């Protein structure tokens, strides 16, 4: 058994170690400790305010491009992830994540490609080092047009 004690600034730390029959070693600490807590605002809300189909050339005919205009409240995001799923939002078809730089107002455009016409569930997640926020939408892509 090993023991140590300290007494300063009205804090007391007592530390002891003892061997156990099961081969392990346990450390017991009793006393007071201090730590700091930082409260961060985080990303509070994300909204898709507009979806616009982008006209493509004949060489890009296989892909339909859609721009999503996204706003958020709270702290500014540093990355955006888009998950494209089936209409029930159960089976993921693709996931794309990109780093972003947002100015003092959280307003950004996210462009995504859709390989074939159909109805999709879109999840857009904005994140930073301490938080994430998500918004979802159903989108119907019909060969260059979206609703």
UniProtKB/TrEMBL annotation:
InterPro entries to which the protein is assigned, alphabetical: PKAT (IPR045219), PKAT_KLD (IPR046846)
GO cellular component, one term: plasma membrane
Domain PKAT KLD: 71-121
Extent of Low complexity compositional bias: 1-14
Region (Disordered) residue spans: 1-22
GO biological-process terms attached to the record: cell adhesion
Molecular-function annotations in GO: integrin binding
PANTHER family given in the database record: MELANOCYTE PROTEIN PMEL 17-RELATED, TRANSMEMBRANE GLYCOPROTEIN NMB
Name recorded for this polypeptide: QNR71 protein
Organism: Calyptomena viridis (Lesser green broadbill)
């Amino acid at each position: 058994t090993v023991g140590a004690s300290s007494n300063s600034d009205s804090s007391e730390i007592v530390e002891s170690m003892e061997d156990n029959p099961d081969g392990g070693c346990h450390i017991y600490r009793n006393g007071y400790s201090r730590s700091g807590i930082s409260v961060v605002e985080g990303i509070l809300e994300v909204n898709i305010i507009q979806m616009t189909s982008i006209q493509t050339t004949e060489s890009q005919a296989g892909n339909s491009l859609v721009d999503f205009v996204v706003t958020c409240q709270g702290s500014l995001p540093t990355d955006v992830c888009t998950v494209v799923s089936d209409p029930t939002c159960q089976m993921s078809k693709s996931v794309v994540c990109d780093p972003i730089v947002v100015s003092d107002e959280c307003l950004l455009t996210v462009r995504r490609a859709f390989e074939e016409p159909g109805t999709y569930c879109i999840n857009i997640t904005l994140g930073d080092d301490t938080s994430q926020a998500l918004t979802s939408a159903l989108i119907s892509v019909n060969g260059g047009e979206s609703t």
